[in-house]
Amino acid sequence: MHANNLPSRISGLAKMHLAVLGVVSILLAGDATGPAMADAFDDWVTRLWPEARALGVSRATFDAAFEDVRPDESIYESAGNQPEFVRPIWEYMGRAVSDQRVETGQEKIREFDSVLDAIEAVYGVDRTIVLAIWGMESNYGGHLGDKNVIEALATLGYSGRRQRFGRRQVLAALQILERRDITPELMTGSWAGAMGHTQFIPTTYNAYAVDFDGDGRRDIWQSIADALGSTANYLRVSGWQPGKPWGYEVKVPDNFDFTVMGTGRRAVSEWQRLGLRLPGGGALLHQADEADFILPSGAGGPAFLTLRNFRAILRYNNATAYALSVGHLSDRIGGAGNFTQSWPEDALPLTRSQKVELQQLLNGAGFPVGSADGVVGQQTRAGIRQYQRSVGLVPDGYASLPLLNRLKS
Ligand code: CA
To answer: Which of 298, 200, 289, 299 is nearest to 246 (CA)?
Structure first.
């Protein structure tokens, strides 16, 4: 859903800072390049028209959509922002699954009881999951985003690193306007074009949004029924299995063979044979299903088996921290408690430049991880595990600060 992997909720102060930067750059650019840039943008819009027309967009819709639209400099600041510091998953989840968000979710379940009954009947997606996604995406409608979507996406499409994304999405947004699902003024969203209560980008909207309240329009901005129905439809089409959980926390035995990490998905019964149990010691659930075993913060933190429905949530936003937050928020809204295992708050995740350093050190020490790009993927985790085994550490593949310090010494 989001253009970034991790949905970054920019703080109010940071937003002000970005706004100030935007103003300064506009002032600096004003005399010399301002009018020229406007002309170039107009040319870009002119060249967009034949493509829009080929997709069935009328001239009237096109002109109304682009009336008073100008590149929004602040969006380039947001789009160019590659965060150096990644929040540890426990901080991310602490905010994502706050007591307040759990309580509000429980209130919303009561408030929208009949709509949620209908959604469960049609799509087979549990109400707590639908509520959890609503809570994660827009804080139950508290943060819908106030950018003009055409302007935001045209800005991205016109210039910068996300031109292909912006162009494709603005064309999809024009199709939404052509169908009169929403007016240009009311089609608002995030700087990356994530719209409404569900934060769908336009192509996702076109593929999955539904008119659940039956008024003829797919209105994810103002109709809670449409928004929640669209969320459930998206999950169902993404492979949601009715009656199954996203996954669950597991207990890892002291003698667990960590060499199985990174070897792929296995039947739950196989994980049971390898020693995993429920936190209380009981047998694992859904033994015939396939599951991934994940350690989001390494062997020192909580451990989980994730089932097929976890991957459906990842279709919404392809980040483990996000999907785990949706799953956990759903469970908490349904009355479950916190995870039994606490997070290893001394094992901080690495910054982007520390990840590059770690990768360079691993490559130099004969544990090849490919190019040192600061992204910890499968190859890097495999290299970390090799190194960990070679020095007698638990081979969990987790890129932590203690690991980096050990490699440096
Ligand atoms: Ca509707």
So the answer is: 289
